[in-house]
Amino acid sequence: MIAFSTIQDEVAVLTDGESVEKTLSIIELITSGGTSGMVIIFILFLLLIVSVYIYFERIFAIKAASKVDSNFMNQIKDHVSNGKIDSAQMLCAQQNSPVSRLIAKGLTRIGKPLEDINTAIENAGRLEIYNLEKNVSVLATISGVGPMIGFLGTVIGMIISIFELANAGGTIQMDVLASGLYTAMTTTVGGLIVGIVAYVAFNHVVGRTNKVVYQMEANSIEFLDHLNEPI
């Protein structure tokens, strides 16, 4: 009977252990890291918001900049061939895109040496590229700084854990170490997430920008070739 009751007690303990299911939400995970962990997570969250905002703002701006009428250059060449420079400039003003602004700059130099026209277009192109790449460097910075801030939280969490161990009085309790360990783990994950998001966003924006730059170069070369054609 004694052995049977002992088995029943063990089964009861196992049953009770299986019935208890502990869950941890994201909010609880963040708040369990203490004040230092929450501060770092808040900074990482702000960096994530900035990254997402810059990404979508640049994507919409680049998408608008890449819209050029497929018949635009043909109309420009017709106007230039017929000596209708004013009409060509009006057409560029209506398009209002990086390509049209480069062509408009070249139109203002018609009558001067081809080298001067090319220089004017290149200078205008540098300004357009600068506008296209506005705030993109911030994404690159966040992609590098995010994991470093997360690693800073990791170091702070480990320092907290070591401090608690040193003052534990010879007894190690997991609940005493929990705050520091939560800080270490959550900030690491948060920093990596921010870094990955910013890195992917940066590369995608740079890729889209390069396509617009190639488009500008192709149309500028086409315009200069037309001016260089023998009459």
Automatic annotation (TrEMBL):
Keyword Lipid biosynthesis: no
GO biological process: protein import
GO annotations of cellular component type: plasma membrane
InterPro entries membership: ExbB/TolQ_transport (IPR050790), MotA_ExbB_proton_chnl (IPR002898)
Superkingdom of origin organism: Bacteria
Localisation: Cell membrane; Membrane
TM regions (residue ranges): 38-56, 136-160, 180-202
Keyword Nucleus assigned: no
Bilayer topology term: Multi-pass membrane protein
Keywords: Cell membrane, Membrane, Protein transport, Transmembrane, Transmembrane helix, Transport
Pfam families for this protein: MotA_ExbB (PF01618)
The MotA/TolQ/ExbB proton channel domain, residue ranges: 95-217
Annotated family: Belongs to the exbB/tolQ family.
Listed name of the protein: Outer membrane transport energization protein ExbB
